[in-house]
Amino acid sequence: MNIVIFGATSAIAQAVARLYAKDGANFFLVARKGDRLNTVASDLRARGAQCVTTQTADLTDRAGHAQLVALTASTLGTIDRVLLAYGTLGDQRAGETNSALMEREIHTNFLSVASLLTELANVMEPVGAGNIAVIGSVAGDRGRQSNYIYGSAKAGLAAFTLGLRHRLAPRGVSVTLVKPGFVDTPMTEAIAKRGPLWAAPDRVARDIRRGLDHGVAVIYTPWFWRWIMLIVCAVPDAIFRRIRL
Amino acid sequence: MTARPMGDLHERHDYLAWGGLHRFRQRIARPFFIDELPPILAARGNQSLLGSGCRRSYGDSGLNADNILIDMRGLDHLLAFDPTNGIVEAEAGLTLANILALARLSQNGAGQWFLPATPGTKFVTLGGAIANDVHGKNHHAAGCFGNHVLSLRLMRSDGTVLTCSPQENAELFKATIGGLGLTGLILSARFALKNVPGLWMEQENIRFATLDEFYVLAEKSYGWEYTVAWVDCFAPRQQLGRGVFTRARHVAAPANKRSNAPASKQLLTIPAALPNFILNTTTMKAFNTYLWYRASTKPTAEIVPFEKVLYPLDSIAHWNRIYGRRGFFQHQCVVPTAYAKEAMRSLLTEIRSAGLGSFLAVLKTFGDRPSPGMLSFPMEGTTLALDFPNTGAPTLALLDRLDDICTNAGGRVYAAKDGRIPARKFQQGYPAWKEFLPHVDPAFSSSFWRRVSAVSETGKAA
Ligand SMILES: Cc1cc2nc3c(=O)[nH]c(=O)nc-3n(C[C@H](O)[C@H](O)[C@H](O)COP(=O)(O)OP(=O)(O)OC[C@H]3O[C@@H](n4cnc5c(N)ncnc54)[C@H](O)[C@@H]3O)c2cc1C
Ligand SMILES: NC(=O)c1ccc[n+]([C@@H]2O[C@H](COP(=O)([O-])OP(=O)(O)OC[C@H]3O[C@@H](n4cnc5c(N)ncnc54)[C@H](OP(=O)(O)O)[C@@H]3O)[C@@H](O)[C@H]2O)c1
User: Fold this and answer.
1) Separation CA A35–CA A118 (nearest Å)
2) DSSP letters of A81-126?
3) A with B: how many residue pairs have Cβ under 8 Å apart?
């Protein structure tokens, strides 16, 4: 099986990759930092991956996307699975007073991902096979004062992903939207993590692999976030305004 | 919510050791890739540093009060695995549980790769296993974990990275194995797995009525790879040292079982600290008496998954919480063969007369393979491990007497289990500590080390 991961140094992405490595998959890994990529590559090889290719790229650089996707396809031959995992959890307060920061956040988490997806779709559509998963977030389900910049980017990504799914479904390419809740990773390191809502990357990775392999439309992980978000979204505005979430 | 700047440190009060006795304020760094370490070292200011793993050590040897702890669990990458020769190279945060899972997948022709030595829990990191030079139930056959380490990479506080092995930086290698994290940060290590016929074990349980019988059994069982005994600390005086002897060896999967022993499931999680009164002398005595009478008077033999033999406690997550919020003490000592039997008798007598009991007492003979580290705990002799609910002064006084019995018999106490031994007794038990001193990184320290390395005005240990 041939797998491409954008943001391969992400903790969640690594946990997913390890699951596929066990089965002897081939990988094309993309991330910004070369030495970290090398570490991830040797980890996957030692865990059973066959062929691992790495490529450094700043994925906010939209101009490089077409070439990057072409390189992916020529390296792997067929693309069976794609995981788009990169993202940033920027400083919400800073983004409120500095619109350039706000824009950067939306660029990284939405525009650049949409651009990559567009290039990928155009390569995979003619082949008519392959499964794509995009990591969104429960933060995209309802805008909240504490992180609506990040949340809005993930919300945009959700609409984009589902639309692309709709477009590609008849062509045999599936697109999955993954919505994790709180995951204990470097991204959330600044937050005090305690309590039953926090999940380990391994836990989330198992759900992602299952959803990706079966081409499920939307997965909440762990599962209970579907119900939490159902409630969060159902709270009337008059009440929501008074809760600091 | 903000993303994390490099070299970020967070003040935390909930980084406890397994015994839950010490509640310290520490600044925590949690790197996920090695390039994050230099900024952490640079951010230390005038605070000292200490590497940290799964915190399965019981006392303060893995803690650094009012200073910095570097939680190494995020550095869990495998760097290389050679399935032909069973050589693993991995970052220090990888756990033995992870390594077992990997070995489980790699059938190697005739058999299976397995850990060369393992403590009684698989939830320890490679770095922690090296820094305490841990031993297992096969010590008499295989020595310590450090005996199987081929090389390691050590980062000193000035950022230099040294490769250490028996050939290269050999003295620093000997200081780092069993070096309690004080020589710097272990980044990664290469070690050798061993070949076993399968993931099942043939296990025999044999009840013994006295300490003498234990020694006879230990002698007779030398050919068994794994041996250990549980002792009943509440036994009547005439049956002092009664218990159950367990011996086991690896075997291929029995015909009616799947070739890979099923990974054991977590049976139970203790969700929060139980009330302190749950474990008291009455309940502990009842439990131990039950264990004694449950054991068959005739030896029993069975074929079981290896987890059942090696990790009986791992099936209950957070079992340490049964001791409640007051926490508990472990005491593990070793006494050289010549004085061992007599010392074990004195230790058990002392515990009996103190009336404090020990919930679980474990007795084992160590073999003659020299320990590789300057401060490694094991020596040829007998080791006794005990745990006591924390009742304050009476418990401390008893532990003090146990220290005396063992150090006076030429033995010593295990740092991984300790949280209170005075400097004098530590230094007496580990005469090589002076030779170890020059290898300590000047920016590394621990709460344990500040206590046991203290020297009084007269030049004698405090
Ligand atoms: C149920 C149970 C059974 C046990 N049975 C045994 C047994 O049979 N035999 C035995 O020997 N021990 C036993 N132990 C003790 C345990 O094996 C040791 O305490 C082990 O060192 C714990 O590893 P850890 O990853 O939790 O490290 P920690 O407890 O977090 O740290 C242990 C030491 O390693 C240092 N350290 C950790 N990582 C690094 C690093 N990367 N670089 C430098 N220093 C580092 C720390 O500073 C500390 O000094 C048992 C513990 C439990 C809870
Ligand atoms: N953790 C959570 O609680 C949580 C919850 C919901 C959703 N998510 C989503 O899950 C995904 C994975 O995050 P994670 O939790 O695994 O955190 P993580 O370990 O911090 O991973 C984020 C990754 O994104 C990469 N990245 C950021 N900007 C990039 C860029 N411009 N180009 C290339 N790579 C870039 C980072 O690489 P560098 O090393 O190069 O910076 C890093 O590897 C993200 O999309 C995140 O939004 C996480």
Assistant:
1) 29
2) EEEE-------HHHHHH-HHHHHHHHIIIIIHHHHHHHHHHHHHHH
3) 68
Q: What is the least distance, in Å, from the CA of A185 to any CA of chain B?
A: 9
pLDDT band with cut points at 50, 70 and 90 for residue B293? confident
Residue A227: partners with Cβ closer than 8 Å, 6 or more residues away: none
- Which residues does B197 contact at the CB level (< 8 Å), separation at least 6? B110, B111, B112, B250, B251, B252
Contact residues for B308 (Cβ-Cβ < 8 A; gap 6+):
B201, B203, B264
Cα B394 from Cα B278, distance rounded (Å): 18
Query: Can you read off the two tokens belonging to residue A158?
Result: 């959700």
**DSSP 3-state percent helix, strand, coil across chain A (nearest 5):** 55, 15, 30
Q: Helix (H, G, I), strand (E, B), or coil: what is residue A40? A: helix
Q: Which residues of B118-135 are buried (b: 16+ CB within 10 A; e: fewer)?
A: bbbbbbbbbbbbbbbbbb
Best residue in A12, A29, A38, A43 for a mutation probing chain B (most B CBs within 10 Å) = A43
**What type of residue is A105?**
E
Given the DSSP bridges, would you call strands A81-84 and B161-164 parallel, antiparallel or unpaired? unpaired
Model confidence at B1, pLDDT cuts 50, 70, 90, reads very low
Pairing of strands A182-183, A52-56: unpaired
pLDDT digits (tens, 9 = 90+) for B154-211: 999 999 999 999 999 999 999 999 999 999 999 999 999 999 998 899 999 999 999 9
**Alpha-carbon gap, residue B412 to B440, rounded angstroms:** 21
Reading the block at residue B208, the tokens are 């013994």
**Minimum CA distance residue for ligand 1 atom 15:** B57
Look up the ipTM and state it.
0.94
Above 90 in pLDDT, residue A158? Answer: yes
Asked if residues B162 and B174 have their Cβ atoms less than 8 Å apart, the reply is no
* Whole-Å CA distances, A32 to A54, A149, B33, B377: 10, 23, 13, 44
Nearest beta carbon to residue A190 from set B1, B90, B105: B1
The residues, ordered by sequence, that sit 6+ positions from B136 with a Cβ below 8 Å of its Cβ are B115, B117, B118, B119, B120, B142, B145, B226, B310
Handedness of CA B450, B452, B453, B456 (dihedral sign): positive
The DSSP line for B345-369 is: HHHHHHHHHHT---SSEEEEEE-SP
Residue of B35, B103, B45 lying closest to B250 (CA atoms): B103
Pairing outcome for strands B51-52 and B68-71: parallel
Query: Chain A window 44-103: which residues touch B at a Cβ cutoff of 8 Å?
Result: 45-48, 88-92, 94
Q: Is-contact B31 B37, C-beta < 8 A?
A: yes
CA of residue B305 relative to chain centroid, distance: 22
Q: Are B187 and B75 in contact (CB under 8 A)?
A: yes
Contact A187 B4 (CB under 8 A): yes
* Residue B139, SS3 per DSSP: helix
Bridge partners, residue A54, by sequence = A29
Helix (H, G, I), strand (E, B) or coil at B266: coil
CA pair distance B363, B242, nearest whole angstrom:
11
Q: How far is CA B407 from the centre of its chain?
A: 20
Q: What is the pLDDT of residue B260?
A: 61
pLDDT at B108 over 70: no
Q: What pLDDT sits at residue B368?
A: 96
List the one residue out of B2, B9, B131, B159 whose CA is nearest residue B70.
Answer: B9
**What six digits make up the tokens of B152?**
């390691």
pLDDT of A150 reads 97
Rounded to whole angstroms, the Cα distance separating A61 from A198 reads: 32
